[in-house]
Amino acid sequence: MSAQTPYTSGSFQLIDLSYIEQLSNGDKAFEKEIVQIFVEQIPQDLALLKEHFAAGDFNKVKQSAHYMLPSISILGLETKLKVELEALEALESAYKVLKRHIETIDNVCNTARAEAIELLHSYA
Fold first, then answer.
1. CA angle in degrees (0–180, nearest 5) for 37-39-45
2. Can you say whether the dihedral through the CA atoms of 114, 7, 12, 25 is positive or negative?
3. Does a structural domain hold residue 105?
């Protein structure tokens, strides 16, 4: 791997850079900007999702899950969270199951955020 791009789409446990790399057409500044937005936005998105769930506002849970899709998708996380996101969109599962789905989304997104921060440090 080169000094400028030590990470490739297969370098991480969770995030997948192939979509960003395709969009950027080699523009590392663009890639860095997109990753930075994810790092800044995902904690807020997760906080809202958990807040709405705790308040029992399931319409807002559904909206929050839908709103998170672009952020999740850009780093290739949608396949890892497909079951959980679909369950939150449908809201047909039991409360305990939905709660587990939110915990999974939270764990995956926080781990992906840590990987994204590591990636940001690698950009020249």
1. 85
2. positive
3. yes
Per-residue pLDDT tens digits for 67-118: 898 889 999 999 999 899 889 988 888 999 999 999 999 999 999 999 999 9
The domain in which residue 73 lies consists of 18-122
Are the beta carbons of 46 and 109 closer than 8 angstroms? yes
- Does residue 6 fall inside a structural domain? no
Backbone conformation region of residue 26, classed left if phi is above 0, alpha if psi is from -120 to 50, else beta = left
Do the domain assignments include residue 93? Answer: yes
Position 4 in a domain: no
Q: 50-63: per-residue pLDDT in tens? A: 999 999 999 999 99
**Residues 67-96, buried b or exposed e (16+ Cβ, 10 A)?**
ebeebbebbbbbebbeebbebbeeeeeeee
